[in-house]
Design goal:
The chain is of the alpha/beta class. Helix content is 45%, strand content 11%. It has a 3-stranded parallel β-sheet. It binds one RNA strand through helix 4, strand 5, strand 7, strand 8 and helix 6.
Length: 454
RNA sequence: GGCCCCGUCGUCUAGUGGCCUAGGACGCAGCCCUCUCAAGGCUGAGAUCGCGGGUUCGAAUCCCGCCGGGGCUACCA
């Protein structure tokens, strides 16, 4: 009987959730849904120095926004300290771990020395071979048995690491908290995680964690999948500090649709083997497979995301787009917003751009300086529209007639009108600029610009 | 330094020995449409497949070396 799939994501609340978090979560969810498995959310909050509770909130909020819902959790490592203590005690008792009293300075000196002698650094094991007399603060080190560690990576096949190159590493810090290399494999084992799907930066961490699992006598995960990293535009790895723009909350604020971001992220590093680029989530679940995942990192491309986001915006129904837009233009009344949608829909790449197209509705632009001829045409425009029904189509018909009568081209006729009404060089079609404005406001703006009595 | 991963148009990629004079998408350029900006339609530029050796009748695809990028090597995760 096949064991049911259990996967997890384990972000640490030392910063906002970023693109990498989303990407890893996505692949986990895709696999979980496809295999009818369980997706667990665990918060790896063992870094006392850098953890912040508000970051955890941000992570949950980001994942929820992206609809990457977890089935179990969030479990917090900070609430499982007893477990790690117990597991560490087992290792200590079995002689598979030992107390280390070395100070950071001493360790630093060891490292420097190794570097000086041009030999690869490995902890000297002095606290194992010569346990110091003094008591006091100590960390717990795992006694690396050496030999070879092998495991299967779902992308790369059989991986083999030489454990003789790995020094004894710390599993419990002197503050009593477990390190990542310890807590993570312990939890994965206890939570019966079957497939560890995570970023490629963890590929060479895997042997550490496998040795811990083996040392404890737990069952190993069935397989690992180390997914390609998302790179910044310059090819470097995305980091929270260097790349604040990768904050997922920011994507929401800029007006990216969560399903568009998901679609883009899925394509970044994975490809379906067909030329399809736009996928529903269900289609992704069906189509996803690890053997079509890229092995190398991929740069994040805003342009392509913008295009996909535009595609998604254009697919939305009038009601859906209205709902999505509302938070971005809360100044605007519902009816006006709905009337603007047809003109907006083909123009937006991000929802927030709606503000640039609509803010003339609640912000009076300064009247432009116009010459006598132009004033005449503005006046003609006023005459043309002042008695027509106030909807874009009627306005357009009236204006077209006025243009024909004026003897000048549309561009020459419309440009000063657009300028007067919106104060902008780029705007919605002129009849929308009229129609969205209350009639009296539109006429007043024109009259003022043409220096006419209102 | 050591270990590991990766290397096809600017970017994301297709490609697993002949179908590749290397395909698609984004972006870019031009044209059409057009009151601006988009959207849409059409056309186009853009990769000697990191480099050098092999293997083979034939290599982007296999082998070796080199170079380049990234990751790990923390009492960060």
């Amino acid at each position: 009987m096949a064991v049911s799939v259990r996967v997890r994501i384990a972000p640490s609340p030392t910063g906002f959730a970023h693109l990498g978090t989303a990407s890893t979560a996505l692949y986990n969810v895709l696999f979980a849904r496809q295999q009818k498995g369980t997706f667990v959310l665990r918060i790896d909050d063992t870094d006392l120095e850098r953890n912040r509770p508000e970051y955890e909130l941000l992570i949950l909020e980001s994942l929820t926004w992206l609809a990457l819902e977890w089935d179990e959790g969030p479990l917090r490592q900070s609430e499982r300290l007893d477990i790690y203590k117990e597991e560490a005690a087992k290792l200590l008792q079995a002689g598979k771990a030992y107390r280390c009293f070395c100070t950071p300075e001493e360790l630093e000196a060891e490292r420097k020395q190794a570097q000086l002698e041009k030999r690869p650094y490995k902890y000297s094991r002095r606290c194992l071979t010569n346990p110091p007399e003094g008591r006091g603060e100590f960390a717990v080190r795992f006694r690396v048995p050496g030999g070879e560690v092998t495991f299967t990576d779902m992308l790369r096949g059989e991986m083999k690491f030489d454990a003789d190159l790995i020094g004894d590493f710390i599993i419990v810090k002197s503050d009593g908290y477990p390190t990542y290399q310890f807590a993570s494999p312990v939890d994965d084992a206890l939570m019966k995680i079957t497939h560890v799907i995570r970023g490629e930066e963890h590929l060479s961490n895997t042997p550490y964690q496998l040795m811990v699992v083996d040392g404890l006598g737990y069952e190993r995960p069935v397989a690992y999948a180390h997914m390609p990293l998302i790179l910044a535009g310059d090819g470097s790895k995305l980091s929270k500090r260097k790349h604040p723009e990768s904050n997922l909350i920011l994507f929401r604020e800029l007006g990216y649709l969560s399903e568009a971001l998901i679609n883009y992220l899925a394509l970044l590093g994975w490809n379906p083997g067909t030329e399809q680029e736009i996928f529903t989530f269900e289609q992704l679940v069906q189509a996803f497979s690890f053997d079509r995942v890229q092995h190398g990192g991929a740069r994040f491309d805003w342009e392509k995301l913008n295009w996909i986001n535009g595609e998604y915006i254009r697919k939305l129904s009038l009601d859906e787009l209205t709902d999505r837009l509302r938070p971005f233009v809360s100044q605007l009344d519902e009816a006006t917003l709905r009337r603007a949608i047809p003109a907006l829909q083909t123009r937006l790449h991000k929802l927030a751009e709606a503000v640039d197209y609509l803010d003339f509705l609640w912000t009076d632009p300064p009247p432009p300086a116009i010459d006598a001829d132009t004033a005449q045409r503005v006046k003609a425009a006023i005459e043309a529209v002042k008695d027509v029904p106030w909807d874009p189509d009627s306005i357009e018909a009236a204006l077209e007639k006025a243009v024909a009568d004026s003897g000048v081209g549309k561009g020459k006729f419309y440009t000063p009108l657009r300028d007067t009404l919106t104060g902008k060089k780029v705007a919605l079609p002129i009849h929308y600029c009229f129609g969205l404005l209350p009639k009296d406001v539109a006429l007043a703006r024109l009259a003022r610009a043409a220096n006419l009595p209102v």
